[in-house]
Each structure stands twice: as C-alpha cells, then as structure tokens.
Amino acid sequence: MSVREKPVEVITRGERRRSWTGAQKRDIVMESLEPGGSPIAVARRHGIGTGLLYTWRRQMVEGQLKALRAVAPSFVPVATLPDGEGTVAEPPMPQAVSSAVLPAGAPAALEIVLPDGTTVRVGAAVDEAVLRRVLSALGRR
C-alpha cells in the first residue's frame, strides 16, 4: 500500500518588493476613500497590507502623495420650507484683508470667502502653489 504524499512547493528566490507609481498609489487611496467602501477590502484586493494603505492615506493628507486627479464635486440635498417655517442663519461678517496682500486699485480676479468669514482676494497672476499653501494654512486655524 502506498501513501500519497502532499506536493512540495519549492521557492527558488523570494518575491521582490513591488514598487508602486504615484498614480497607482493615488488610485488605491482614492478607492479606499469612496463612501461605503472598506479600506481593508481595498488593501486585500490590491495585495497590500492595511498599514501601507494607511501610510499612503496619511501621506496624501500631508501633501507628500499628490492627488493628481480632481475630486468629483458632491452636492448636499436642499429642501424648501413653507413661508414662516425655519430660520435663516446670518452669514459671518467677512474680515478685511490687509492692503499688503492686494495693492490698492488692483482689480481682484478671485475672491474667496472661507467658512469662518475670512476673505482672501488674489490677482490674476497669483501662483497656484502659493495660493494652495495660504488656503491650507488658513484652513488649519
């Protein structure tokens, strides 16, 4: 009587570390951020550890991993109320912007009013990277 042995798998060399492009990382992170999605399921689907996925997510938040694809806009449902029902909140008063930011008499090409009421006015020749840093700094206040 012969006993059947289990097959033996011979591994000749270890698997090399995969290198992910920035676009691949971005796509995986964006997939993990979709509403109703599970980061664990996304990590398993792509064959990566959850720790690596969360590292990439942190890097994206900190600006080390660029989200090259524009995030699709999302909308909030709006309902109308019959006259006399509900209240309307007064928007906060905008704060004045220093004249050092925009010289007197210079036409503002863009005016941004932040949720806290702060107004940022920039000219047409503003550097996009600088504007992003300014808005990011104002958003952390």
Describe this structure in words.
By secondary structure, this protein is mainly alpha-helical. The chain is built from 4 helices and 2 strands; from the N terminus they run αααββα. Mean pLDDT is 74; it is low at 96-100. The protein starts with 21 loop residues before the first helix and ends with a helix. Strands 1-2 form a two-stranded antiparallel ribbon. The relative contact order is 0.08.
Characterize the main sheet: 2 strands, antiparallel
The radius of gyration computed from the alpha-carbon positions, rounded to a whole number of angstroms, is 26 Å
> N- to C-terminal separation?
79 Å
Shape: elongated
Q: Which range best describes the helical content: under 10%, 10-25%, 25-40%, 40-55%, 55-70% or over 70%? A: 25-40%
Low-pLDDT runs of 5+ residues are 96-100
| Widest sheet: strand ordering | 1-2
Structural class by sheet pairing and helices: mainly alpha
Rounded mean pLDDT is: 74
**E-strand count:** 2
Number of helices: 4
H and E string = HHHEEH
What percentage of amino acids are in beta strands?
5-15%
